[in-house]
From TrEMBL:
Residues 9-111, 119-216 form the ChrR-like cupin domain. This is Cupin. Gene3D superfamilies: Jelly Rolls. It comes from Methylocella tundrae. Coiled coil: none annotated. InterPro entries: ChrR-like_cupin_dom, RmlC-like_jellyroll, RmlC_Cupin_sf.
Length: 233
């Protein structure tokens, strides 16, 4: 399966306009954003647990990165409420369960092989670093040139910036924002190959999950996989 597998293209998915599909586990649905592979895949998805739903215990062969958008789930490491940012490295395992239901942003099989740390941050009580122009940043993770952080834009703020030349993903967690190419309500996922200037504006304020510096490597890996498949054929 290949979904939005050309990492040189800009992609926008608005959660309200896209289709959720059942996973193999009853009560768990996925909105697939990008994917290379079958049930075990390099994947980026929104994942939705119905109340009183569990997921079988499993090992993360390529690592798992999670942001809890709403609700809460629990696993071997405890309870993870809305705003939790979690990194489960390669070889880790857990058995998630959600009593109340939850919506997650999940990235699978995208860890650097040398990144071994388990990370959990409660961003709801995390420290925001004020910056000029009406915005603030909350750092989450940095490794090998790839950086993950939250951005909060004040009401009426405009952020003029250059998108990272190594590419960027952004999820609108709350509020809404816009640029010259469109409007992005809460639940929007944007993947941009980068290297361009953007003027991002938020009339009412917004909170964003942002990951930068990783798409150039993803594009190179996808090309190598295509070349290998072509050679095998």
């Amino acid at each position: 399966m290949r979904i939005n597998a050309d990492f040189t293209r800009r992609i926008v998915v608005r959660r309200g306009d896209a289709q959720w599909t059942p996973s193999p586990q009853k009560g768990v649905e996925r909105l697939m954003l990008d994917r290379i592979g079958g049930e075990v895949a390099r994947a980026t998805s929104f994942v939705r647990f119905a109340p009183e739903t569990d997921f079988p215990g499993h090992t993360h062969g390529g690592g798992e990165e999670v942001y809890v958008i709403d609700g809460a789930f629990e696993d071997d490491n405890g309870l993870h409420a809305a705003g939790a940012y979690i990194r489960d490295p390669i070889g880790s395992s857990h058995a998630p369960f959600s009593a109340q239901g939850c919506t997650l942003f999940v990235k699978l099989w995208q860890f650097d092989k040398d990144d071994h740390d388990h990370v959990e941050i409660d961003t709801a009580s995390g420290e925001w670093r004020k910056a000029p122009e009406g915005f603030a940043i909350q750092p989450l993770h940095h490794f090998a040139g790839v950086t993950t952080f939250l951005v909060r834009l004040d009401q009426g703020a405009t952020l003029n910036r250059a998108i990272h030349p190594g590419g960027e993903e952004m999820v609108v967690l709350a509020g809404a924002c816009a640029d010259a190419e469109g409007d992005y309500p809460a639940g929007t996922w944007i993947r941009d190959p980068g290297g361009r200037v953007q003027r991002l504006f938020s009339a009412g304020g917004c909170t964003l999950f942002v990951k930068t510096g990783h798409l150039a490597a993803a594009a190179a890996a996808a090309r190598m996989a295509d070349e290998a498949a072509s050679g095998a054929g």
